[in-house]
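SAMPLE LOG
Freezer: B-3
Tube label: C17
Construct: single chain, 455 aa
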Amino acid sequence: MIPATRPAPLTLTHLPRDFTWGVATASYQIEGAVAEDGRVPSIWDTFSRTPGAIANGDTGDVACDHYHRMPADVALIKSLGVDAYRFSIAWPRAADLSFYDRLVDELLANGIQPWATLYHWDLPQALEDAGGWPNRDTAYRFADHAATVFERLQDRVDTFTTLNEPWCSAWLGYATGVHAPGRRSPQAGIDAAHHLLLGHGLALQAMRALETRPHTYVISLNTGTANPIADRTIDHGAAYRADGMGLRLYLDPLRHGAYPADVVRDLAYQGITIPVRDGDLELISQPFDMLGCNFYFGQNYAGTDEAGNTHDASGAPVVRAIMPDTPRTAMDWAITPSRFTQLLLRLTRDYPGLPLVVTENGAAFDDVVAPDGSIHDDSRTEYLSAHLAAVAEACARGADVRGYFCWSLLDNFEWSQGYAKRFGLFHVDYDTLARTPKQSAHWFRETIERTRGSR
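STRUCTURE (predicted):
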């Protein structure tokens, strides 16, 4: 996407007065795998050292070295003029949380609200060796982790997110194997999904038992959209099935206390069962305060394969994903801001009374460093402009959206893509680890300033 002119900063008058502006990161992607605080190996340490698992053989061993450069990175966050910083706690660092003590104190000293995420995919390898997320006991170990972190930070952190994108942890990690730990079993993926949700409920219960003052609790989900490729009954059915596996499988038990009946039937047809025990759904569906929406693109679905067949070789109905015919990011993801508005309105309609916060939105592009060292990432700026306008449009039409966190603060280790894809507002030179603000960083700061000034 190459805009004809550089996008001007926005003035978003339809956002709430107390709208939270922020940026987001994840521990394994930026910190580096330093062990000086007792950090133990994670599944991503193991996976990234598996030949062929990560592009170019990259690992998160150094990443952005945020662990050693944290105060300077907080200064970058402050330079953007945001209200909050969403970061994740590395579970492998749970034996010594002093780094996060320092991070929280540094954020507060700079007038930035810390938003702590308790799990962003870096399961300790020892827990994976004991069975990982398909093992029910991992949910209880996660509650212990949540309690440890909460007890240490609750005096200074107001907002805790339990899980980031359990669909990725469960399905990409255990069913398709493209993420750590690299297992390939659909049943293991469903087991993991249920135990992640159970872990969310147990963590909420554990934290609330320790509260000395009120806190805000969030869970962040993958929230793409599933649209039929054409106005045919079979395509509508395929889109509904995709929505079931991608969103309703998680959000229905969280909000309605039950798994979607159609998803349960489809899984049973494949010989897959959800390992629900008595009392699980009551734990999973206990109240939380905001839904974190991570949105990157919408998808189309067809109920026939390329040959026109309606069922695959196993007899299951075809659910074929087809990327919308729009410009793409460097991840080859479609750019679909109108679907973002559609999503936020749909969540407001189907899950009423649940405030929303955009906990991730952003784009990778092939940034070019100019001879003078500047990075004119017009494509990213245009992407952010279109998607923030989509959020404002949703608010104008009744969606209760409380904040927006741009993904990401820094270029970083992009999971299976290694360092080949850049999402950051700040460019990272991976040889020197120097940070340079991109044009999008300046644009983001000016948009925040203009929007605040319009109040």
